[in-house]
Amino acid sequence: MSVTIYDVARRAGVGIGTVSRAINDSPQIRPETKKRVMEAIRELGYTPHTMAKRLATKRIGIIAAIMPFYTGHFYHELLRGIQKALTEFEYDLLVHFVDRPEKLRAYLDRTLSEKRCDGLLIISMDIPEEYVDKLQHARLPVVVVDRGHDRLDCIQVENEQGAYLATQHLIRFGHRKIGMISGNRHSEPAKQRYEGYVRALNEDGLAVRPEWFVSADMLNATPDIQQNDGFNIHAGYAGMHRLLALGDDRPTAVFAASDILAVGAMRAANEAGLTIPNDLAVIGFDDIELADYLSLTTMQQPMYEMGKLAVDRVMEKIDSESDEVRQFRLSTRLIERHSTQPIGS
Amino acid sequence: MSVTIYDVARRAGVGIGTVSRAINDSPQIRPETKKRVMEAIRELGYTPHTMAKRLATKRIGIIAAIMPFYTGHFYHELLRGIQKALTEFEYDLLVHFVDRPEKLRAYLDRTLSEKRCDGLLIISMDIPEEYVDKLQHARLPVVVVDRGHDRLDCIQVENEQGAYLATQHLIRFGHRKIGMISGNRHSEPAKQRYEGYVRALNEDGLAVRPEWFVSADMLNATPDIQQNDGFNIHAGYAGMHRLLALGDDRPTAVFAASDILAVGAMRAANEAGLTIPNDLAVIGFDDIELADYLSLTTMQQPMYEMGKLAVDRVMEKIDSESDEVRQFRLSTRLIERHSTQPIGS
DNA sequence: ATAAATATTGGAAAGGCTTCCATAGCGGAA
DNA sequence: TTCCGCTATGGAAGCCTTTCCAATATTTAT
Q1: Residue from A4, A51, A80 to probe the interface with B (highest B Cβ count within 10 Å)
Q2: Cβ contact B92:A116 at 8 Å
Q3: Among A51, A73, A79, beta carbon nearest to B51
Q4: CATH top class, domain A5-56
Q5: pTM
Q6: Is A95–B95 a contact, with Cβ atoms under 8 angstroms apart?
């Protein structure tokens, strides 16, 4: 029914092996022969059968990405980096969005029981221990993105260092009373950023006051506030309210563990009649689109690079078959805008 | 090397056909035989080879989605719907983000020359005429989402009707001077929404004043303002500035062709000292996450349903092999919040 | 008990490609 | 002219399923 290499071979007066070599840019073929084959291919309108090829080569040409069902700039940029790199390898991207942890298990089971991709990118998700074993046993190349891992390859941003720099930035500008608003404390990035915040404060001998730290899980457990692991606008808003309730004892500057938290926080502050940065300085983390628009000082994460690196690494693993595990850490960059300024200026 | 059905067949003491039947829940097998086979499968740790299966069945189990590289709630929800439906069919989703129209061509060429999916969803994109022919000729099931099309199956929201209802809502609240801020005029949704806006005005005998209509392409061609086809926060901001420059002659209410435009517009209005909804009413279109947060009245698009419907339809086409072309239109719903209120209340 | 109908089963063939090995063709060295 | 050592070529075998048809086992009807 459809045109196969046999048809092409007959038409070009060559063997099927030669046709295959012509298609795959093998050096083992005379240029003129190749030309004749290519001509036959064009005449017959031949297109290679992808599945047959995959069966024969055992290469699928697909990388799967599993990621949480969050929206936002972070994933957008990450995907852009992934896509860019993948296109260069002529690989396709299979995405699977996950909204609940059980779904991750289900998907991993399916991926492991049917080989549907050559490699896997697990983004912003914690991997149940038993699946780490399964993944390693199946020898499926995996790169964990936006989370650290000791037994799997991983790529993450220097969260601790970034938070340290952000807090230091506020200290440099003369702030002594520095609060932090965070997503759920138990999430990996939240923990690391908290540590960086504390380190910067300690280094300058500033107080780490428990009441100046608010995280989403400390607030009402409304679905709004818990979504996206507590990194959402509502948590930022409610968190800031909590800080403002402290009255005169409130922080004069706030490090928000993500830009979207900062946006909610700024809104609460504005509504309370505070102007930013005069009455309150705010620094975020991520550098989302809205940050530029609202002139929010923030720590930029190299998301695009992270995506690219993740793909490069997983392709490397696919090719090498080596079991070596490598951890990558990318650094953040301070983007100064107008939500922070030297005190008294 | 790897375990195949032959190994399973030998172990279970049956033929390979029987193994295949056991795996695929064929009714043509005795329950006890099936049990024996399943046992052998477990013992050997057999997993079916996906590519071989695909070669044999000519079913790939993948739907590809091509979509623009926009971020935002709209695509988020759409993907959620797509994913949900696909999971039910046990199909995978291949996504390809496109940032420039040439890329669309390149991807379509690749998709057409190698059969890498069973069906295609083309989202929010205009399809070059020549590719319409190619797609039809290749008999690849295609559903166009968020755009109309006369020769291909398509699913879109009732843009005209939605805009009509939005404008009518403003009129009902007593507004007579109603402006509109839009993305690029040449984009399909922008055109349709403009028509709805005009229809509502005409119906009530209100003036359609050219200076009350601003679209992204009428503004400075900075990259910021042109991104996302003019449906972005910067265009909303600049557009509102333009309207405010009209002084006393400015509209008292504005229909923004998307929520994100409305957000920019509201910001400009706030900065100019106007309060919403008292000094200016604003209605958006989309119902993005931020709309709820900012209490923006808007027209909600059934994006999740759209995604689900798109998948259902493309699966239907895959199964039926019929060439029938169907157009779907989903209606929008008014979500009243606080950015609009009856005049004088 | 026996024929007829039905339910199960086995395995060859098909699906379309890559790869490997044997063979053919070629130019240059002896 | 005869070999040798390359490169280029042909095509069988292999990748792993599904499917179809023939063969066998089991029921059911008589």
Answers
A1: A51
A2: yes
A3: A51
A4: mainly alpha
A5: 0.85
A6: yes
